[in-house]
Amino acid sequence: MASTYSSTVPLTIIDLRQSLTHDAKRQKIHQDDYPSPPHCVGADITTAASDVDVVPLDIILENPEAAWDSADSDSHDDMTDVSSPTDEVHLLDEHRHLHHRDSTSSSSSGSSNNINMELESTGTAIEEPSSSEGFDLPKMILSSLKPVVEGAPKAIPTMVLYDDYGLQLFDQITYLQEYYLTQEEIEILERDADKIVDHIPDNSVVVELGAGSLRKTVLLLNALERKRKNIRYFALDLMLDELTKSLKSLGQFANVKTAGLWGTYDQGMAFVSSFGSEVPKTLLWLGSSLGNYTREEAKDFLASYRKSLNVGDNWIIGIDRRNDAQEITIAYNDPKGVTRDFVMNGLDHINVLLGQDFIDRQKFRYFAQYNVEVGRHEAYYQVKEAHELVYTAPSTGEEIRIALAQDELINVEYSYKWSPQESTQLFEDTEMTKVGQWTSSSNRYDLHLVQKTPFYFKTPVADEPLPSQDEWTELWKSWDLVTMTMIQHPTMLLEKPIALRHPFLFYLGHIPTFLDIQLSKALKEPFTEPSHFSVIFERGIDPDVEDPTQCHSHSEVPDSWPEVECIIAFRDRVRERLFKILNDPVSYPMTRRLSRIVFMAFEHEAMHLETIIYMLAQSPNTAPPPSIPAPWAVRKSAADDTFSSGEPLSPSTVSPATWFSINPAQLDKDIISLGHNDLESDDLTDAHKKDLTTAFGWDNEHPFVTSRPLPSTFEIQSRQVTNDEFLGYLKAVGVTNKTLQGNEKTPASWLIQDGDEVFVKSVYGPVPLEVSGVWPVSCSNIQATGYAAWLSTQQGAIYTLPTEHELSIAFKLRQATVPKTGLETYGFRQWYPTLDHQSLSTASSSSNSSHFSGPGGLWDWTSTTFAPLDKEGFKTSTLYPGYSTDFFDEKHMVVLGGSWATHPRIAERRSFRNWYQANYPFVFAGFRLVRRA
């Protein structure tokens, strides 16, 4: 816990309102542009208390260590020179950002309630007691009460609620039982703070937007202190007095350094962007402050702040759900009347701000309602009787008259609520990858942890089978990140970490060559130069595991591969060719056949991206993904790309898998069916050649099969078997740690070090079982079958791998009954396999509390040999003849689902069928069991 605050140690407040003299790109901001509220007047850099240093930002930029008292300079990272800011920084219009009660703070952000900033309709120049070019609350009050458009609803800025007395009243509100938001957030933080801060790297900067009382924040700071992470914490707020009091209440920490930021959200955004890319950052936005904004405003705000973040930076956001209407209503209108007094006090504050008796609060009442359809709580001042407001300009005596009608509603606050689906869509729209979610026990409130990632795979739209240019761009970002940074040039290019496959260099040429060949064949155009790439890069090898001399036909393997620079230049020319085709509908009208080729090339590249990833996991030379630290690792220093495990790790644990009972006879046809209808030859018929909405599939997914006999009722494990569980099996059958090395039962995903210590291979290097024990085990089909046979003997029941039909039914059932959360364990949401414990509730479930994890983490092995779904209906692809038929050899087994490195277009298409040789041990494939009578 933090110690008692010592007044002998000065507290630093950085004044963001001062002009950023080093930055020509930012508008100059004067201190007078942001007048302090009445209780803060006079609190400036010259009159601050002796135990508080209010320092202009320019001084901090010149000397970052000035922000920290008794700081160890070795534990801090320098800011970049602000003369070279991130070009993406975009300062929003300050007038849009007012305060909102749910933020539990006195910051300056929130919805403007559609306030109009000018009184053009009156033709009158308004003189206020405190006017400026910037943040001008008095002018905003008058403008919002007299909208430009006559008859438009009147409003009052939410900011008026937060004077000294208002802040005291709001603090009382947060302790009310009815105001559940604060209590729910505290519950989450008390329970899960340690898990949350695991995602905050050592030597991070943590900036809290609208800090408020810090009653909840201290729970996170204490967790960071327990983890002994060196953190620089900045509390951002607009109210200097409250900011000072709150920071003093924290006390001092041994590892966490605290300071204040005096300014607005937008100034805070500029401050955040001033840190260099090597400094990891986490934003805190607690108290459901997102409710300040409309749906579109929230999206714009997150997108704007995202530009200030670097890849790998986090944002922890509290969001109140669309809960029971009565619960929300009473949360904002408590029986004791504290909320009523809080809102009505805003009218008294208006008179102080305007310097005259402008409003008589006795002529208004507090009116509140929850708008279920819109999903927001609405707070108003309701006019008791018709009357007129009169404002007199102090210097001229000119009057502004505002007529109010009886029962008229004047909005002062909106609080938007978000369903889980709306939150998920918000993060999808703003391309923020959700890496964690913690929910209160009542399921009313969530803390989301989202991250800016180097690329973002959006959920495909069902009726848009043609990948968009944006999708291609993101796929190329991922491909380039892996092939140009994780594969270290030139030393790794000819490396073959899996002897059965080509060296890495081959795939750099294979991907653009495949696309180029398909385009040239369809369009009857020449190959992109150098044209001989079509000879050496067209098709790779996939030899028989037991006899590598046996292999399907493949491209000629040259005596020496082309230079990588030549391959990259070729890649870029092919990419330009594709975009030229997509952008010229006159020369290249988009038919179903051309669209299919683009689809095939897209999924082909996505599948080979995963191939390279599982090859990289086998290499000891792989560089970890840049700027994406592993949650279990501690960054040694902000300037160091290496990681260490930090303090000793506690053994990982996971709850036993539950069993989910499914009776296929009770399910809809769409769920019990297999495949889908997409006959390649139909592309050229008049009825289909212009069809750009029907989903594509590979030849082995056709036809749509509904007549196959249904499986009997079966029980399937809720999740995949873990590394810990698999190790337990090996020990039970007599394989000791000493004999794991080289044992055929030992997964190729394991690395045995120091004779007997088990690690799991990853793109971050070997990961100890203390962390990876709860990950699903990646192994061959034969190894998975051995586990099932052992468990059958142990428990006297019949355990097997699921058939393709059974696993397909289970996955389709989950997809039909469980909404997406953004935490699906595929599509590079994280860079390692994890278990997914999403609920699946259905009438056929043996228990309403059963859990069934969906696709992701690892692919799922089945017991089904890879073959056509229906021999009569199967037609070999003419565009890619050997795609499936070369592997109908009785040696390849069907795998379904997807891994953490699988693109959503593949992982979310339930008809997609993957396959590998039963004894191939390197792929990202695990297993779950079926229990039979």
TrEMBL record:
Which InterPro entries does the record match to this protein? CTDL_fold, DinB-like, EgtD_Methyltrsf_superfamily, MeTrfase_dom, SAM-dependent_MTases_sf, SAM_MeTrfase_EasF-type_put, SUMF_dom, SUMF_sf
Histidine-specific methyltransferase SAM-dependent domain sequence ranges: 150-451
MF terms in GO? methyltransferase activity
Q: Which domain of life is it from?
A: Eukaryota
- Domain DinB-like, residue spans: 493-612
Task: Give me any GO biological process, just one.
Answer: methylation
Residue ranges constituting the Sulfatase-modifying factor enzyme-like domain according to the UniProt record: 696-931
**Which keywords annotate this record?**
Iron, Methyltransferase, Oxidoreductase, Transferase
Pathway membership of this protein?
A: Amino-acid biosynthesis; ergothioneine biosynthesis
Residues of the region (Disordered) are 66-86, 97-116
Record-linked NCBIfam families:
methyl_EasF
Q: Which PANTHER family match?
A: ERGOTHIONEINE BIOSYNTHESIS PROTEIN 1 (PTHR43397)
Q: What is this protein called?
A: DUF323 domain-containing protein
List the source organism: Linnemannia hyalina
